[in-house]
Amino acid sequence: MTTEADVLIIGGGIAGVSLAGRLAGKAKIVLLEREEHLAMHTTGRSAAMFIESYGNAQVRALTQASRAFLEHPPEAFFAPILTRRPGLSIARPEDAAEFETFLADNPGIVHEIPAAEALARMPMVRGEVYTRFAVEPGTMDIDVHALFEGFRRMAAAGGVATRTRQEVLGLSQGAAGWTVTTPDGTFTAPILVNAAGAWAGKVGEMAGLGDRGLVPMRRTAVLIEPPPGVDVSGWMVVNDVAETFYFKPDAGLILASPADETPIEPCDVQPEEIDVATIAWRIEEATTLEVARIRRRWAGLRTFTPARVPIFEFDREGFFWLAGQGGYGMQTAPAVSARAAALVAERL
Ligand SMILES: Cc1cc2nc3c(=O)[nH]c(=O)nc-3n(C[C@H](O)[C@H](O)[C@H](O)COP(=O)(O)OP(=O)(O)OC[C@H]3O[C@@H](n4cnc5c(N)ncnc54)[C@H](O)[C@@H]3O)c2cc1C
Fold first, then answer.
1. What letter would DSSP give residue 236?
2. Ligand 1 site, residue 199, Cβ cutoff 6 A
3. Pocket lining: 23 vs ligand 1, CB cutoff 6 Å
4. What is the tally of structural domains in the chain?
């Protein structure tokens, strides 16, 4: 059976679903997801942070442009999406140059504070190891479920057809536009959006357009039990400016990552013991915390372009790239989806 549409979107993560939400009601849209459920890959595995100082200048601009939407989302987003969680960036003496660059890149967003003040706020950080500190008051926790579900509701209310268990196995182009083959049949549309996350390079190759240099990289996260009797709920997000680890509270536990970036073929990625051991070791080296029990561990694929900026643009003949969200796909989703939707809408 062949289903005809105006726009086919491949990928049911935040990228595909946020675009579907933005375009809903403007055209006949079908979203195709390989898995039984949406958001099973990178979107369901994030650390749920909104950090305006994170990433290069283009990423920071996209994050900052997303803030107003996240603070005042439309009605479809039932819950508040952001909760205040100030950030503390910490630097060792040997990382002074990175620390200076970080301050210079983020005027008005971060500011240096004296060591005594930083250590009074986060006394577990080892003052004999870390000597410079910067606060980012505007850092937030993101309610990823609320964000994703809001866009999904917008899409559903505007008539977007979401089809799960539809792995795109083949792509071809003809007079009717793009034809997509899945195990259940074929779908055609003049516009095809590649929002396939870690598989976006593979989908580009399937379309004969190459992979744009997209590289999926494994990142590991763990949930650590806090010391007995310690309430972590008011802790800041602590981030090493040399990007060797970060930690933050998460529902009574401590979420931590070794900030690993291991290039890997797209797959249902699982954590490696070495990365789990590395985060435990780095936390104990940087703080007075003892990593006695890890409750949960997981990994996800952050996919980067060579320039480490997301691509949202048309390629040949109605093929639209919405890929390379790296480690910022949740916090940049409002701005990226708005701009991507405007570009797609121009061709409807
Ligand atoms: C540990 C970790 C921490 C992170 N922390 C943050 C954070 O704090 N803040 C932030 O903003 N971002 C964070 N990120 C990054 C963020 O999660 C990603 O940028 C974002 O989820 C990417 O979304 P996506 O829709 O591109 O990919 P995905 O969510 O992976 O969605 C792509 C979808 O495409 C589907 N697909 C692929 N190929 C096909 C095919 N052939 N046919 C049909 N469907 C297909 C897949 O099944 C998948 O569901 C983090 C990521 C990780 C791993």
1. P
2. yes
3. no
4. 2
CA of residue 182 to ligand 1 center, whole Å = 21
Q: What is the pTM (predicted TM-score) of this model?
A: 0.98
Please state whether beta strands 7-10 and 191-194 pair in parallel, antiparallel, or not at all (unpaired): parallel
- Atom 41 of ligand 1: nearest residue by CA position: 168
Q: Which residues contact 24 (CB under 8 A, 6 or more apart)?
A: 154, 155, 156, 157, 158, 159, 160
Q: What is the pLDDT of residues 151-192, one digit of tens each?
A: 999 999 999 999 999 999 999 998 879 999 999 899 999 999
Tell me if 67 is assigned to some domain: no
The boundaries of the domain holding residue 179 are 2-61+144-214+306-345
- Ligand 1 centroid vs 326 CA: distance in angstroms? 8
DSSP track, 6-33:
SEEEE--SHHHHHHHHHHTTSS-EEEE-
Q: Is 327 helix (H, G, I), strand (E, B) or coil?
A: coil
Q: 132 and 219 share a domain?
A: yes
* 219 and 299 both lie in a single domain: yes
pLDDT digits over 250-307, tens only?
Answer: 999 999 999 999 999 999 999 999 999 999 999 999 999 999 999 999 999 999 999 9
Helices (H) and strands (E) in the chain, counts: 8, 22
> Residue 296 belongs to what H/E stretch?
strand 294-304
